[in-house]
Structure formats: C-alpha cells, structure tokens
Amino acid sequence: MSGAARVIWDDALTSYDFGPDHPLAPVRVELTMALARDLGVLERVELAGCAPATDDELALVHKRGYIEAVKRVSVAGEPDVSAGLGTSDNPAFAGVHEASALIAGATLAAARAVFDGTAEHAVNVAGGLHHAMAATASGFCVYNDPAVAIAWLLSKGVSKIAYVDVDVHHGDGVQAMFYDDPRVLTISLHESPRTLFPGTGWPEETGAEGSAVNVALPAGCGDAGWLRAFDAVVPPLLREFRPEILVTQHGCDSHALDPLANLMLSLDGQRTAYAALHRLAHETAGGKWIATGGGGYELVQVVPRAWTHLMAEASGSPVDPATKTPESWQRFVRERTGETPPLTMTDGRNPEFRDLSGGYDPADPIDRAIMATRNAVFPLHGIDPLP
C-alpha cells in the first residue's frame, strides 16, 4: 500500500518544554522515538532532520507582530500575556521562539517531502500544535505547524488540501486560519464543546461552502461510537472533495486514560483510525499524506505506543498489536520516568467500524451528533445526509 515514508526528527524538538509541571511534557516524544527505534519501525522509514521555520514561513499564517512578541519572550522568558504567553496553559520560557519554529519547520519538512515527491508519506510526531491562532498562543500551542504547512502548500500551487484532526480537542486554530478558504477542507472529530476546551467545534460551524466540518461527540464516547462517527463523515467527504494532499493531526488524548479529556477510546481504536486515514490517503489523495502528532497527556501508557503505531502504519508495515514492547525500552521507561511501562502494543480490544447502513437511532447521542454534522455539511457538498 505504501511507498517511501519519511519521519522528521531532531533531538532538539524536545526543547519545546513548558516546564516540569506542565501536561505537555517533551518526554512523550522522547519515549515515542525510543520505542519506534527499539521495535525496528525507524528502520523501515527514512529519517530526516529539519531546520526552523523562517519568519516569512511563519507569517504565512501568523501576524508579524505576534512573531516579534514571541521572539521577545524567547530572549529572557518574560511573559507577554497579550501574546498568550505567560499563562498557566502557555507559560513563557527562554527559547520559546526557537523551539516552536523548529516544530513548525519539522512539519514543513514533511510537507516539502510529500510535495516534491521524495516521500509519499511524512510524519512529524512532535507537531500538531493546532490551537495556536494568528496572533496569540493558545492551548499549549505557540506556532500552528499544520496551518503553516498547509499555507505553504497552497503558496506552491496545491489547489485542494484536506485536513483531518482526530485530537480530542477541536482543531480550532487550523479551522480559523482557513475558515473562508474553500481550497482547504478541515474536518475535526472531538469531544463536545459543552464539556471540553476550547468550547468551539459545533456542527453549525461550516466555513466557506462547507469547508469546515465538525463532529462533536459526547463525553464517554468509546471505540465503537467514535469509529461509527468517523466512518459516517470522513470517507464520504474526502471522496467528494478529492484533495491533492491529505494532512492529518493525531492527538491521542481521546484515549480513556488521558487525564485532560473524557472520551474512552482504546489504543486499538486509535490504531484503527490511523489505518483508515492511510487507506483514504491512497484512495482520495494519490497517496500524498502528511501526519503530525498533537495532544496526548498519558505520557507513558498511551502516547509512545499510539505514535509508534502511526509511524509504522505510514511505513506500510504496521506493528502487530500483540507485539511485546522491547525489554530495552521498558528499562528506558523505568530509568527515565520511574513508571511501569506497558508490556504490549495493544489494549486488548478489537474494534470494528459499524456503519449507518442499518439506519440511525435518534435516541442515541452519538447518532444524533453524526446526523447533526451530516445535515449541516453534506448538502453543501452535494451529498445526501441521510444514510
């Protein structure tokens, strides 16, 4: 199924660090890359480095004044609350510009590789900072690397790009930056804004000509309901839109163990979604697929396994979920974190898609969420919203 896959990595990507008490701890990507290396996944991809995004590249989506404000904060780590830096979510730290620009540069490197054909798929697990707005940091995100990459691709003449965001939080920053641009289809599946930050992502937020799509799922939704919603919304829209390139954000904070949210997915449900997006990249976008990480705050049990599965999926050689985690990695986890590592690459679930072919149940809150989205958006794409 897969051609050449590239993983973008530089050890300096772990310098994006809000401090020891912050949920977005860089150890999560350190453990991820160690697990992928010890399992042999990195032997099946091309590893490539990256350079920081330039000011001109960042300015494709961010205001120049904001970039300058981040640079000022970066010098001494002094807060600038007007730029969103110096809050509990986004603490100021010395070097924040350099660390954030490198993450954006890593996703740009992935975009360049896919655009110029040197890789069919490219992954930046340190990226996916989808909450950053044009002129302010938000939700642990300083520069919006998926949006920078999308804007760069548009500047190179790509005419249609689809962005699918499976983070538990609404992909509000990316949506906002392309809300009125029909060349970019943004699809976000997330916990309902009634119960989770950032409080946006209602089905009625439809953008230009239906270019924004939001599936707001109720707290407590697990594998079966989440996959049903994905299957009912994402494939039909991608098949109709036919993007030239598919960009995906893979926040794994939808997992039941994540401390900051309320969905109940398993690692196996997340892995099933990665495989589905891989298939859809080939079916609808000529195989051109750029994938990033995102949220994920269960740093040992979830993030490393989830994103190792993502990189393996992109390589065309998925990891058997029954695979044991290597003893070398288990030792590293204990030494690095003092925590007990997971022993296998599965949560022991076997989730499957359950489509709408048998109709929908108006008493089911998940089916109501599905139909709210289909009713709001499908007619704008010429698709019948009814199953």
TrEMBL record:
Record-level GO BP terms: acetoin catabolic process; epigenetic regulation of gene expression
Pathway: Ketone degradation; acetoin degradation
The Histone deacetylase domain, residue ranges: 22-312
Keywords: Acetoin catabolism
InterPro entries hit by this protein: AcuC, HDACs, His_deacetylse_dom, His_deacetylse_dom_sf, Ureohydrolase_dom_sf
Example GO molecular function: histone deacetylase activity
Pfam hit, one: Hist_deacetyl
Family statement drawn from the similarity comment of this UniProt entry: Belongs to the histone deacetylase family.
The name this protein goes by in its record: Acetoin utilization protein AcuC
